[in-house]
Amino acid sequence: MKNLSIAVVGLLLFSNTLVAQQSTSSLVKNVKIENIGPTIMSGRVVDVDVNPNKPTEFYVAYASGGVWYSNNNGMSFQPIMDTAPTINVGEIAVDWKNGTIWVGTGEHNASRSSYAGIGVLKSTDKGKTWINTGLKDSHHIGKIEINPTNPNEVIVGVTGHLYTKNAERGVYKTTDGGQTWNQTLFVDDETGIIDISVSPKNFNIQYAAAWKKDRKAWNFLGNGKTSGIYKSEDGGNSWTLISTPESGFPTGDGVGRIGLAAFDNQIVYAVLDNQFNRPKSETKKSTMPEMFSVPGEVFMQISDVEINNVLKKHGLTEKYRAQNLKNMVSDGDVLPEEVQMIISDANKALFETEVIGAEVYKSIDGGKKWKKTHEGFIDDFYYTYGYYFGRVSVDLSNSDKIYVSGVPLIKSDDGGKTFVSINRENVHLDHHIVWVNPSQPGHLINGNDGGLNISYDDGANWTKCNPHSVSQFYSVNVDYQSNYNVYGGMQDNGVWVGPNNYKYDVEWHQEGKYAYESLMGGDGMQTQIDRRNPNIVFTGFQFGNYYRIDRDKKDMKYISPKAKKDEKPLRYNWQTPILLSSHNQDILYMGSQYLYRSFNQGETWEKISGDLTQGGKEGNVAYGTITTFSESPFQFGLLYVGSDDGLVHVSKDGGVSWQNISTTFPKDLWVSRVVASKHKKERVYVTLNGYRWDDFKPYVYQSDDYGQTWKSIEPTFETNAINVIVEDTVNPEILYLGTDNGLYVSFQSGKDWQPFMNGLPPVAIHDLVIQTEAKDLIVGTHGRSIYKVNLSAVQQMNNEVLSAALKIFPISNITHSDYWGNTWSAWLPANEPSVTIDFYAASAGEINIQVLNDKGVVISETTQKVDAGINQWEYDLEISKTVQDILRKKDKKIVFKPTRKGKVYLSTGKYQVKIAKEKTVETSFFEVTENKRN
User: Fold this and answer.
1) pLDDT bucket at 649, cuts 50 / 70 / 90
2) Under 8 Å CB-to-CB from 882, ≥6 apart: which residues?
3) Who wins on pLDDT, 48 or 302?
4) DSSP β-bridge partners for residue 841
5) Is 50 exceeded by the pLDDT of residue 760?
């Protein structure tokens, strides 16, 4: 087997150092980006690690939100991984005796948004600093186990690449704390290790679950004959396949993901995603034919849940949802039985067979023989996407008590013979991990798509522990009310809206209303808001199911375009794009493989293009779809469209004719954005994303002739696939770039790129939008909720400023208040005023700052070290006693009104700010205006 040396670690450390140097030299490194929630809707939890001697202390791993630490049973959390080069996590393991934390980066679930990692990270100081110990090409880590008697001996199960073949997968072992790694099990370049379970009685006895899978943008195969269970009896140095035909465990092409839980040296459980078809004699009579044999009006009354459950069982949820089908029959043009033929492509076998699904097996002789624990099938649990779950947990104080993660969370008290659901109303349905307290039966910590839940009564009741911002957003948008709202669609947690000035607090527990409000469920997608009436919102969920919502009237209408009777169903992307025209807010665009336009906000639709993709590919995932489009603000009907298979088209006549303008691009890459310029009619930007080919290079292009020719403006940094580009609305030279690993800005039209990360961890940025009136950039992350940064200073960074030695940006006035420095209770902090002074310095050094009144008296003076770029000084408006004495000497009639705490602040009037750096002096002014309400 292969050996990886410490040289790899050095290379990775060097790479991480380059990223840190980029951030240090960024001109915007002092511009603070603030998180604005939400919190109660969490992102996907993939692992927890609990202190066995103090179970109120634990770490929680989020798929794309990093690792968080709690020392108070989940009442509060602190992120410990934000200084690492990635926060994409598949697995964590903690040596509680020494405090060492191991993180396997790259989520082990094979979801469409399971981000890749950079190997195995290690921290010996509780997350303050991190070392990359290697396995960089692993991409996704399934499990980590630490020898409890030798913390330098660690076993890692590597799942491997998600979309392509690779050799760095299997089981790896280190005996020197990660300095070197030995590959002790390799199956093949398509089969990785998804789970490892070690006997709690003997570290030498280990079980590993091999999983063959193949995900493509158009198809997912989550099973294969090389999937199986291996065993080691020498601490992971050598392995033997034990899931043989003679063992009683299923073998062959239908073996999918496997989860393992060892109770002791002999007893071990396995949960299997069994993708073999059920025997015809045992196949439940499918409700599919019965469902589609009813009249259209009856079909419309069937609940969405019932239809979606049937679609799940037959593997159709990667293309359709209940609303897609109802849309086909809504006006009577298409009968339900015709819909069945359409969605099955006349493949009757699809409806006559059903996969076995989840099964639980148990061995009582160390894996020599396996026996299924239950009679019949575990229905309505894995459906056809068991690849997304696959963990089983055993209570180490009771070998008959097990917990299986799926949809929902189920438990058995009789060794898997019977199961009951322990989901409750405040617990998400999709489950990934359960920690079982070996010392206190019934104490559970559960990680799911909605976050973290804790139970002390074996799942009868749960507490939700989501006080931190770890939501996974696909998209964000804003309205234009005076105190504007932010909207966003998030992974498996719906569409939400909330105030842009949200700051985390728990006061809503007392008031009973959270600041953010849910608009709908499902996987939340894009949102458009009518600028004339913010109560009119267009949004929806996956695969093109969109609605027009009147929030004031609490009315919701399904508006998605549908195919004609003689056409195949429309191919909608998972995140179907929609757009309200900037020229007329009654005009709405929406894309399938065709571009549609409505002149009446979705009441009726007109198809204005042919198929703007390469035509799709056969598979179980919708593909050959429009992913992005843009309309020029300069000309109605100047349209650009991009697809998931690498095509970009332009129309200059409202869709009458189209031209392919992507012939010089790398082939077949996902077009993540096409953006028509706000500053120049002929200009357009395109970003491509190779994530679904395991290609993480940045692809960014600009054209100044409607896409006839292109120039690359991609950054020079590596391994950052691009999700979104936004042009500044004020300064035509400024561009913002959202990548899979953070936010970047360019001040020279893409000639240079700099990290824009102060307050923002290295998280995937899925969407960006500028609220032009407030000059705020809203940042939608897939793992850390939503951020906001004000661009007032950034937008001033033109060529004139960049060539200056020193420049003060315009200072906002402040309204005087008698409440400054006061509070209604001595137990509460005082209301302290502040004025932010933004300025640019061409080089680092020291400056002198003075504030003078209208008579030239220096009210405040300080020195401050500055960096090259934008700097800020927060002026507290306080007048010191020394200055008070000076002012009294100059004006004996002056009267100061101290606050309750004795402070004196500026009175109404005009003030000058003077900043000096070496021989350069810059001045600016602000005013304290009268408050007529005092």
Assistant:
1) very high
2) none
3) 48
4) 806, 869
5) yes
Q: What is the dihedral of CA 222, 226, 227, 230, to 10 degrees?
A: -160
List 66's β-bridge partners, or say none: 62
DSSP 44: -
Whole-angstrom Cα Rg for the chain? 30
Write out the DSSP string of 579-634.
Answer: EE-SS-TT-EEEESSSEEEESSTTSS-EE-SS--SS---SSSS--S-EEEEEE-SS
Sign of the C-alpha dihedral, residues 506, 480, 542, 291? positive
**Bridge partner residues of 528 (DSSP):** 538
So what's the pLDDT on residue 666?
98
**863 in the Ramachandran plot: left (φ > 0), alpha (ψ -120 to 50) or beta?**
beta
More confident residue, 34 or 294: 34
Q: Which two tokens stand for residue 459?
A: 């799942």
Two tokens, residue 452? 């973290």
Q: What is the 3-state secondary structure (H, E, C) of 817-832?
A: CCCCCCCCCCCCCCCC
Write the DSSP symbol of residue 868. S
Residues 6+ apart with CB under 8 A from 773: 480, 484
Sheet of 451-455, strand order:
431-436, 444-448, 451-455, 463-464
Query: What is the sign, positive or negative, of the torsion defined by CA atoms of 274, 280, 282, 288?
Result: positive
Q: How far apart are CA 920 and CA 799, in angstroms?
A: 18
Angle 833-838-840 (CA atoms, 0-180°, nearest 5)? 160
Q: What pLDDT was estimated at residue 20?
A: 56
Cβ 446 vs Cβ 398: under 8 Å: no
Distance, in Å, from the CA atom of 761 to the CA atom of 781, rounded to the nearest integer, reads 10
* CA angle in degrees (0–180, nearest 5) for 445-451-457: 30
**Res. 22 pLDDT band, cuts 50 70 90:** low
Q: CA–CA separation, 212 vs 228, rounded Å?
A: 9
pLDDT tens per residue across span 80-115: 999 999 999 999 999 999 999 999 999 999 998 899
Put simply, whether the predicted model's pTM sits higher than 0.85 gets the answer yes
Average pLDDT over residues 365-371: 98
Q: How far is residue 697 CA from its own chain's centroid?
A: 19
Taking the mean position of all CA atoms in its chain, how far away is CA 67?
14
What pLDDT, in 10s, does the model give residues 489-527?
999 999 999 999 999 988 898 888 999 999 999 899 999
CA–CA separation, 673 vs 282, rounded Å?
48
The contacts of residue 24 (CB under 8 Å, 6+ apart) are none
Q: Give burial (CB, 10 Å; 0-12/13-18/19+) of 920.
A: middle
Contact 920, 806 (CB under 8 A): yes
Question: Where do we find the tokens 């006997």?
Answer: 199
Pairing outcome for strands 754-755 and 765-771: unpaired
**Tokens 């073999």 map to which residue?**
276
| 257-284 average pLDDT score | 91
| Tokens found for residue 639 | 């349209």
Q: Residue 226 carries which DSSP code?
A: T
Task: Report the mean per-residue pLDDT for the chain.
Answer: 93
Residue 347: per-residue pLDDT: 41
Q: How far apart are CA 169 and CA 146, in angstroms?
A: 19
Place of tokens 């159709």: 316
Q: How confident is the model at residue 345 (pLDDT cuts 50, 70, 90)?
A: low
**pLDDT tens for each residue of 299-326:** 888 888 778 777 766 667 666 778 888 8
Name, in order, each residue with C-beta under 8 angstroms of 445's C-beta and a sequence gap of 6 or more. 48, 50, 55, 58, 434, 435, 452, 453, 454
Q: Give me the half-sphere count of Cα atoms (radius 13 Å) on the Cβ side of residue 213.
A: 30
β-sheet with 742-746: strand ranges across: 722-727, 735-739, 742-746, 754-755
In this structure, what token pair is assigned to residue 171? Answer: 């089981």
How far apart are the C-alpha atoms of 538 and 558, rounded to whole Å?
10
CA dist 674 and 689 (Å) reads 12
3-state secondary structure of 479: coil
Task: Give pLDDT, residue 306.
Answer: 79
